[in-house]
Amino acid sequence: MNGACGVLPHFATLEDPRVGADYPLEEVLLIALAGMLCGAEDWVGIEEWGKANREWLGRYVLLRQGIPSHDTFGRVFASLDAARFEHCFIEWMKALCPSLDGLEVAVDGKTVRRSHARRLGRRAIHMVSAFADRLGLTLGQVKTGEKSNEITAIPVLLESLLLKGAVVTIDAMGNQSAIASKIIEGQADYVLAVKDNQPGQCEAITEFFKEAEDFAYAHVHHVHHAEVEKNHGRIETRRYVLTDQLDWLEPKYRHPGMRSIIMVEATREIGSERSCERRYYVSSLAPDIERVSRAIRRHWGVENRLHWCLDMAFAEDQCRVRSGNAAENLSILRRIVLNLLRLDRSLKVGLKNRRLVAGWKPDYRAKLLGLQPI
Predict the structure, then answer these.
(1) Are 331 and 337 in contact (CB under 8 A)?
(2) Which residues, 6+ apart, have CB-to-CB distance to 89 below 8 Å?
(3) pLDDT tens for residues 225-245?
(4) How many angstroms separate the CA atoms of 32 and 39, rounded?
(5) Contact predicate 178/114, CB 8 Å
(6) What is the pTM of this model?
(7) Contact indicator for 10, 19 with CB cutoff of 8 Å
(8) Confidence (pLDDT) at 2
(9) What is the per-residue pLDDT across 136-161, written as a single tens digit (0 to 9) for each?
(10) Alpha helices per DSSP H over 38-129
(11) How many other CB atoms are there within 10 angstroms of residue 165's CB atom?
(12) 301 Cβ partners below 8 Å, 6+ apart?
């Protein structure tokens, strides 16, 4: 899968919020993406990178007015329609990934911690992303409303994606009948975590597995699977038990398309210390324990390979950009750049070093962005 295949054309439908602007939106977007690709993390850094690389940029755009100031970048992205920017991002990913059949898609939220404006009564923005761990790519994201939460944002995100054939995993916040229904409508499957936000369902499933275990699952149709992982002196054993025997479960606790429930027991040993935790899930999948266990494991990729990378490689939580739509649009820019870096398979180094190489090698940078000289 090649880097950009020309990333900028997928954002050509963005409307410039300015009238009679000196700097075309295409140029502003290219400088922002290229600057961030090479390590810039805010508008000042992007301006300075643009000045230092004006000759290179001039191969691909006209730059009749030169490089915009950091104030100009701030104003443009503060006023740019974030919902439209998100839509263009998702359409770009649909073009790159027209099928998700057989893949796992983890949906989870992340707060951009320093994006709040307390004096104006605005909370930090919270972005809900869909992440395909096996591809290492963000497929789309939406911002939760000021007075809402992930429950209302997740269906909006799911509706915008091509999910046919995928397995969607969501933590307990997404364990809602409406969300399960939206996934089934998209011809996908789900694995949803069960916790105390659905107390009746959680209690019923917990008691079922406890009773079944007391009788060694003698009268329960089930499949099971175990994994052992050893790492840095830690031994973790995960035991999965799945059953499609749901006739005992009250209809009010069943989601559309629900076909199985799962118990995961994780035992962790570090030296002489031992801890044990149990987690529960509901799923639309048939009793395919290996597929279910893979989906549950893959869900953590959204934390380790997306959220952690946004903080460590892009310093997202340290960013204080707050004006208008700028925090949301800058968050989208980071995900575009992260995807561009992940799409490239030519370098066998981490994200930090790929950004360094993009800064050092103009041809590599142009390849990632899919640029053609004018």
Answers:
(1) no
(2) 11, 140, 141, 332, 335, 336
(3) 999 999 888 999 999 999 999
(4) 11
(5) no
(6) 0.94
(7) no
(8) 39
(9) 999 999 999 765 689 999 999 999 99
(10) 43-52, 54-57, 70-79, 82-96
(11) 14
(12) 106, 131, 133
